[in-house]
Amino acid sequence: MNNGFMDSLIEQNPDAMIFADTEGTIRVWNLAAERIFGFTKEEAIGSNLDIIVPQNLRKAHWRGYEQAMQRGETKYVGKSLPTKSLHADGSVIYVELGFSIVLDSAKNVIGALSSARDITKRYKEERENRKRLAELENARR
């Protein structure tokens, strides 16, 4: 497969596609990432992943990221996890995040590819529904 093919797959994906090298520097940022996180490609590429990781989650994020880069594997392969993230305007958003280790042709770790889908609306609706259900249960007592 040529680079043009891969570039079009990444760029046209409806989910945010973010590739970061082993140091956590963003190297690929597609149009969906711009839409979801609010940073332009020019702002994001060359920046650290901290631009989208909330301050209170950074220590755990980097511990897991460094372990994945050292081991060349992650326990999250094939899974998507809901998590908090940051938008360029400073607001907290919720995303469903998938994570894959990327290897070069010699099987050396060169970084990680993440896919993210904005679930903020769904998350808030579910939280509101849980709140209403708790209120109804308390009213019955």
TrEMBL record:
Annotated PAC domain residues: 79-131
Q: Which Gene3D superfamilies does its entry note? A: PAS domain
Q: Which PROSITE patterns match?
A: PAC, PAS
GO BP:
regulation of DNA-templated transcription
Q: Where is the PAS domain?
A: 2-72
UniProt cross-references to InterPro entries, sorted A to Z: Biofilm_reg_signaling, PAS, PAS-assoc_C, PAS-like_dom_sf, PAS_fold
Q: Sorted alphabetically, which Pfam families does this protein's record hold? A: PAS
SMART domains, per this entry? PAS
What PANTHER family does UniProt report for this protein, alphabetically? BIOFILM ARCHITECTURE MAINTENANCE PROTEIN MBAA, DIGUANYLATE CYCLASE DGCP
Q: What is this protein called?
A: PAS domain S-box
Which organism's genome codes for this protein? Answer: Desulfobacter postgatei 2ac9
Lineage of the native species?
A: Bacteria, Pseudomonadati, Thermodesulfobacteriota, Desulfobacteria, Desulfobacterales
